[in-house]
Write a structure and sequence with these properties.
The protein has 399 residues and is an alpha/beta fold. 51% of the residues lie in helices and 7% in strands. The strands form 2 sheets. The chain has a 4-stranded parallel sheet.
């Protein structure tokens, strides 16, 4: 049976598409549908579009590309779905098809940015130094607004901060250094290493280090994502536990088994590594210091929807003596979505401002955020609204 998918390129699987019964229970949970009210901006609408391509009734280009690009891949629909539709898997496969059909110049630019720069630690560090210098000189104010709102705050001091590993006889916990985390959130890395030591682990860093491949996978750059997964597996597979202090990274690394399932050399190794992955907030460590007062909690989508993590953040804060405060927005996505705020700036800005206002409404002086994209997006929107609410990783708060 002929389809509209490009031959030889991975595509959404028919069995996955057939799990959707078009009930519509996902609609009120979808951030883009809640903003636009359009069926084509909903998970049900996007799955209907995928089915149309599957049946050969529509091309991958044009409207299908637009529908797919507008999705945040936050997976709120997946968590709400009574039929357990694997929407995250569907949208990533659809994006592989979309990327294969983009104009060559556009495709090359995206591939260089995601796989070329973010996929190489030295280039990522070089980019970090560039950000640190331009921000110190305040030249970054000349950048377009969407780039400013997507860029992390990087300092020369932060770039130079060493990370202290530990020695001892406990089980080995290896921390993913990552890409954005390594240049803009090194204090979070140190807080995570400290927490691992308090939990009885020997906390170490991988030789080399770098991106887990999440950004590439979300953008449809499947081969870049697979290459980065192999690199991280080779570096980290000897550890007893593999820890990521970014919600997006821990969620993605848990899919390594599926990502490399068709690779006979790597499939078993990928599945073994995926089984060892823990998000940093899942490590049951005593707090490093007491914390008083109210702490607002932003649930990153790749915590709440992709991994079912939420109570762990609150448990970490309560153990230190703080009072966690939920936001009144039902866990809506902040609009960061990896590089979504660069590619879809208008929708991202709407969602970012909504999230910032929900945080301000709590009256808490600090908000706990366990994902770098969320932290950047929320911090920039809070600043734009004139708020002095501080954005901190949960483990950083209690370190």
């Amino acid at each position: 049976m002929s389809t509209g998918w490009t031959p030889g390129v991975p595509a959404p699987e028919r069995d996955d598409l057939n799990t959707c019964v078009q009930c519509g229970l996902c609609l009120p949970h979808c951030p883009t549908f809640r903003v636009t009210g359009l069926e084509t901006s909903s998970p049900r609408g996007r799955i209907a579009a995928m089915r149309a391509v599957q049946a050969g009734d529509a091309p991958v280009t044009g409207d299908f590309t637009r529908f797919t690009d507008e999705c945040l891949a936050c997976r709120a629909c997946e968590a709400a779905c009574p039929s357990s539709v694997p929407y995250g898997r569907l949208i990533e496969a659809a994006r592989v098809q979309v990327e294969a059909n983009r104009p060559a110049a556009e495709r090359t630019g995206r591939r260089l940015a995601i796989g070329g720069v973010m996929g190489h630690r030295r280039l990522t560090r070089l980019m970090g130094w560039g950000l640190a210098i331009t921000q110190a000189l305040r030249i970054d104010r000349l950048l377009p607004r969407r780039l400013r709102f997507a860029a992390p705050r990087v300092t020369v001091r932060g770039m130079r901060q060493p990370l202290a590993q530990s020695s001892g006889d406990g089980p080995v916990a290896m921390l993913l250094t990552g890409c954005v985390m390594d240049i803009a959130f090194r204090p979070v890395h140190q807080a995570t290493l400290d927490a691992l030591v308090r939990a009885g682990y020997r906390a170490v860093l991988p030789d080399g280090g770098g991106c887990c491949g999440a950004l590439a996978a979300h953008a449809g750059e499947r081969e870049s994502a697979r290459a980065l997964a192999r690199a991280r597996i080779a570096e980290m597979e000897q550890a007893d536990v593999i820890v990521a202090d970014s919600a997006g990274c821990s969620a993605h690394m848990r899919t390594y088994g599926h990502l490399l399932a068709d690779d006979p050399e790597w499939a078993a190794r990928a599945a073994a590594v995926a089984a060892k992955v823990r998000d940093a907030v899942e490590i049951d460590a005593p707090p490093g210091r007491p914390v008083e007062g109210r702490i607002a909690v932003h649930d990153a989508c790749h915590h709440l929807h992709a991994q079912g993590i939420g109570p762990e953040v609150r448990r970490t804060l309560r153990a230190a003596g703080a009072t966690p405060v939920d936001l009144g927005d039902g866990g809506r996505c902040c609009g960061a979505g990896g590089i979504y705020n660069v590619l879809e700036p208008e929708m991202a800005a709407t969602l970012g401002e909504q999230k910032a206002r929900a945080i301000i409404a709590t009256g808490a002086p600090v908000v706990a955020v366990a994902n770098p994209g969320c932290a950047i997006q929320i911090g920039n929107h809070l600043a734009a609204l004139g708020s002095d609410v501080r954005v901190r990783h949960p483990l950083e708060i209690v370190d």
